[in-house]
Fold this protein.
Amino acid sequence: MEKKIISKIKSAKLLENIFGSKGHWQLVEKMDEILIFLIQTKNLVNEEIDIIWDSIYLDSNAKKFTMALLSKIAIYFTESNYNYLSSKLSRSKSLLIKE
């Protein structure tokens, strides 16, 4: 069952659609359970973290809600997820400070 759910999430390009340019911050706000599921099943890969991270460049609402979401789910990250996101954060400090 778990594998079927993961397959559906990935084949539907759910993260790309929610966090992409056609996504909406209200949908981003609701993604915590899906992302936690992907993290706990060790199915959140760096390319998907990139998709989530890149949404902060879309507009101020996307940035605000994506950062809130990442803060909310950070406790669930694997060490690899955490290290990868930390490297992205450290390279983007100037972007995060400006608003």
Observations:
- The chain has one domain: 2-97.
- The helical segments are 2-11, 14-19, 25-28, 32-40, 46-54, 60-73, 79-91, 93-97.
